[in-house]
Amino acid sequence: MDVTQELADYAAANSTAVLQRANPVITDPGLLAAFDNTPVDAEEYSSNLESHLLALTLTSTQALIASLFTLPTTSSSSGPITSLPAPITLLPREKPLPKPKPLTKWERFAKAKGISHKKKDRDVWDEERQEWVARWGKGGKNKDKEEQWLHEVKAGEEADQDPAKTARGERKARIAKNLKQQAANLAAASSKPIPISSLRDGPSSKLSKPSRSLGEESQETKKAGRDKRKAELERSMLISKTSTASLGRFDEKIQGEPKVKGVKRKFEPVAKTDYSGEKESALNVLKRIESGFGSDKKRSKKGGEGAEGGLNVRKAVRFQGKQDRAAGKSSSGAPGKKGKRK
Amino acid sequence: MSMLRTIKPKNARVKRALEKREPQIVENEKTAIFVRGQTSSERVREVMKDLYALKRPHAINFSRKNDIHPFEDAASLEFFAGKNDASLFVTGLHSKKRPHDLVFTRIFDGRVLDMIELGVEAFTSMADIPSPKSSLGIRPLMVFHSDLFDTHPTFQQLKSHLLDFYNGHPITEMPLLGTIEHVVSITAGPMNDAQPDALPKVHFRVYTAKLLSSGSRVPKLQLTEMGPSIDFSVRRVQDADPELMKAALKRPKLAKSDVESGLGKKKKNIETDAMGDKVGRIHLGKQDLSKMQGRKMKGLKIHKERAAANGGDDGMAVDGDDE
Prior knowledge:
A: mainly alpha; B: Rossmann fold; 8 helices; Ribosome production factor 2 homolog (chain B); Brix (chain B); rRNA binding (chain B)
């Protein structure tokens, strides 16, 4: 019985022999990885693949083990713990880096003034009851005034007023004010152009703006943003006002409602001191008549272009169809005016 | 992502769960989803089972078939990624044109980052190799052989994919004794000069590692095949969008204390030598030899009276200018 092959296999499987490498194996202990950049030996690869793979793995893993076991360690109750360095190989993240949270108006103010945040305890000491009570919420201290059984009526106050009701109204007004401020902060955060710091982080970081941190924007940019928001709001309001059947004619007026500004016609003054432009304007009129003002060519251009300056295809097709029909009838050629004038 | 409705948390538990899914500076380990297509072969299913066993516990196995063709339409992968907060996918497929097909997909920010398609040419499962297996949740060592992983773009991507799959989550510290159990070895065959277009096979092997005492600090290593043993052929590749990849490779700025403790960038001139001792190098400035005290002699002494006289003359000159 020949067992030489089996013995050789066993020896190979239990060997700790390491191959000679021309280039040293690159290790990345932070990821527990090693990279052997030496080209694979084609002859060994084709003749005995498995043992060659084992030998290669043994070589590179031994190098990795060597780099791992020379790292600094700290002792613990369960044995030494090796601290690993940061990985060298760059691997993609799962999610983008978190964006900085937009500051609220108060936070911006506090930052500018250098006011540090003081955290309020949720509970306060109640001297009368001799116990800790919540500052707000169930059994909160802010409701003391409305829940007390006796109220002092000061001189000059109306006799029929309910102090408990007034206190409650004041508290509810504070809550409403806070909610309004929260909503305003949210609106400002969402309408604000994306913070510069996150633009730099983001994928489309083509904008090279001065690196100014959040919260210290200039007054001009703030004002521009405010104006823009205001203009948008006014525009949408005007649109909504004219969206009724009567075009807003019978709607109630809102306080501070923006006025609708139409296009004003301009007339030349009859008596002028300077008549130099008159000849030119008269010639312009003639030129427009000569070039066929009001003809098909001109009309096709009128309103024929889209918002972005491209051709309004639907309109062009419609127009072409109209022209063809007119040519078929062999009528006057120029199609009639569309729609009624308002 | 757009297919998922945005959930507004109604209680604190849901809020915490949603916050966990938001982008973090230090990320959690990536979860892999193993999903098979409408048609898959026995071999592909077996391969996926073994890859899943190696990836557990950060893996989800979908037991049902799904009509997925990642290279044609990856919308359902993005949907699954959003639902399960996972960013790695292995899709098992089988067709006449591409038999025993595995597609590795990576997701970044809810969108497909890149994909690579591998064909399973040969396979021996973990169960078919009678040897002890690694424990659950143990991180493997990963070794890559061949210059192609350094030079060829497709193989670079494959390396990135596989490294990301098993060892992508960086750890800062680990006990070495008892936590090294197995090695994942990935080898690309040599390039065939006769057919330069054909990409060589990639051999995926897993060995259990045994550390033997060697008398020095570094132990000796002995390997036994554990399985699975897979021979892959590289098929289609979808590269990452450069802008998306750039965003995915962004590293967070670490806190100053972390940088000082050596987590962030490499400290200059401080090294740890082979014995684990800290060695520092100090650079001194150039020595000013002109001020060096040479040998003292009586003749070279500066007399006090002469020095004072020189100073007095200067003072007089200044006064003269003023008048």
